[in-house]
Amino acid sequence: MSSQKPKLQTSILKSGEVALVGAGPGDPELLTLKALNYLQQADVVLYDYLVSDEIMALVPESTVLVCVGKRAGHHSVPQEKTNQLLLEFAQSGHKVVRIKGGDSFMFGRGGEELQVLAQAGISFQVIPGITAAAGATAYAGIPLTHRDYAQSALFVTGHLKSNSDDMDWSTLARPKQTLVIYMGLMKSDHIQQQLVLHGRSPEVPIAIIERGTQQTQKVFVGQLKDLADLATNAQAPSLIVVGEVVELAKDLAWFGEASTQVLKVKSA
Questions:
Q1: What's the predicted TM-score (pTM) here?
Q2: 5, exposed or middle or buried, with CB in 10 Å at 0-12, 13-18, 19+?
Q3: Mean pLDDT of 65-91
Q4: Looking at the predicted structure, is the pLDDT value of residue 267 above 90?
Q5: Fewer CB within 10 Å, N- or C-terminus of the chain?
Q6: For residue range 96-108, what is the model confidence (pLDDT) as tens digits?
Q7: So where are the chain's domains?
Q8: Which residues, other chains included, contact 235 with Cβ-Cβ below 8 Å and sequence gap of 6+?
Q9: 234 vs 15, 48, 263, CA distance in Å?
Q10: DSSP character at residue 244
Q11: DSSP state, 14?
Q12: Top-level CATH class of 18-127?
């Protein structure tokens, strides 16, 4: 029987190919080996604002960096322009990485970008990343599920297309579940009102996790009736967590000084 250990196979990014890479929530050590491998092979990297500086520092200096980031109310690069850049770089024979914060298929419009590439016959790969809901809650000491508190978890975005509100609030307000809201700070007052209106207790624990998994992480905790006030203290990128599991943060918070001293807002 052979005593040789299996060797890690290195994937190759081909010329004219695009790799859609999830960067994870910010801690560079949460980047996958495959993501790091492709970042170091790429001729061109298109990145957004949610990719941490520590991760971008892993890209070789010779690589062309193109920022295609968007911020709420300040879209520096329209989505159509990003799609066109991906096409042009790939059609020119470059090895292209499109890197996004978290996971590219979780509220990241990665699917839309790949549809454009597929229609043009461009070869692509997808490298998943740890989505912010999983990474940030883990670093804040908040289990997404727990036998005593929550049997399910729902991930939703608070940033809806054309400012519409087609959320299924009755489902989102169900008890015994964890609700994680991406990009919800600007609509925190509306979220608070709708969850209470549809049956969620105003006293249910909530948390806002700012810059989760990064050294600057902050965790604000309170009750649902505090959400709008709590949101005024937080800055993007932040996640809103609603559910009884938030209570566990006082015992399970482990990451950094900011997490062991959870910031609380007193209920009125």
A1: 0.90
A2: exposed
A3: 86
A4: no
A5: N
A6: 999 999 999 999 8
A7: 18-127, 132-264
A8: 185, 210, 211
A9: 42, 21, 11
A10: G
A11: P
A12: alpha beta
Position 162, amino acid: S
1-19 per-position pLDDT tens digit:
556 777 777 899 999 999 9
Count of residues making up the chain: 268
- Does 165 qualify as catalytic in the annotation? no
**Active-site residue among 27, 48, 103, 226?**
48
Structure tokens given for 96: 């292209």
Give, to the nearest 10 degrees, the angle between helix 79-91 and helix 110-119.
Answer: 40
Q: Which of 43, 70, 225, 229 is catalytic?
A: 70
- Domain 132-264, what architecture? 2-Layer Sandwich (3.30)
Distance CA 97, CA 217 (A): 27
Match 């299996």 to its residue by tokens.
Answer: 6
pLDDT at position 240 is 98
Find, among 201, 195, 214, the residue nearest to 255 by Cα. Answer: 214
The percent of residues in the chain predicted with pLDDT above 70, rounded, is 90
> Within a 10 A sphere around the Cβ of 70, how many other Cβ atoms?
16
Annotated active-site residue 48? The verdict is yes
